[in-house]
Protein: ABC transporter permease
Amino acid sequence: MALRFDREAGQGLRLISLTLAYVLVMLAAPLLMVITFSFWTQDYLTIDTTLTLNNYREAWGTPIYQVLMWRSLKISLIVTVVTVLLAFPIAYYLSFHVTRRKALWLFLITVPFWTSYLLRVFLWKVILGYNGVLNSALLGLGFIDAPLTFILYNLNAVVITLAHAWAPFAILPIFVALEKIDRSLLEAATDLGDSPLRRFFRITLPLAMPGIVAATLIVLIPTVGDFITPRLVGGTDGLMISNMIQIQFGKANNAPLGAALAVSSMVVIGLISVGIFLVGKKLGGRVR
Structure:
């Protein structure tokens, strides 16, 4: 029995060895380099490898970095909430009300991926611009007298663009979770006199919680590090910590400080993600 177990374990290790090596080389090694770099200092082209916490003191103590970090978290949380709230009804409709050509509907959800992410951001810039599609349409219909200025080059534009970009990533995991719900539980709740609303909150929502948590983390984590969208549609009021990290690694020529900002961002979003996961784990699967 032990020999068979060792043989199966060896086969398993051989199967994952290439993947594990790839992960270590392409993910773990660069992450370790960034963490190490954050404890060094740089004077133009000279790197001082003496270990120091000065970069972290500056990252956490400088007001501009605090503002950018808080703004990044706020934008990411707003985008996540908006995206998940919009994604859930779509996933619910696909799971419970679409009986024919469900695969076609899922295929259509992926259509935005056919175009470049950068191109989609530029399209939103055209739509939300001062003389863009939205303002031109509203002016033409007589709903407004002057073009709206609060929908571009600010936090609002970043939220709208990111919510659209990440919507498919939120719809799919929620749809999968809803598809796994045993319909006999809903039928039993109906037979016992539960209203549709009560049935939703007692059965559907708790059992869909793993998909909701997955969608939340899938949207939350990458949006904190997005620097293209705030750079193109955010203006000065929509810039995020990722833009400052890019500046430190580029124009400012201060890679250690940029690394410290990056590690700080990872730690903060990691703690938030763990909290969300634990709350979701506690609520998930609770059918009352």
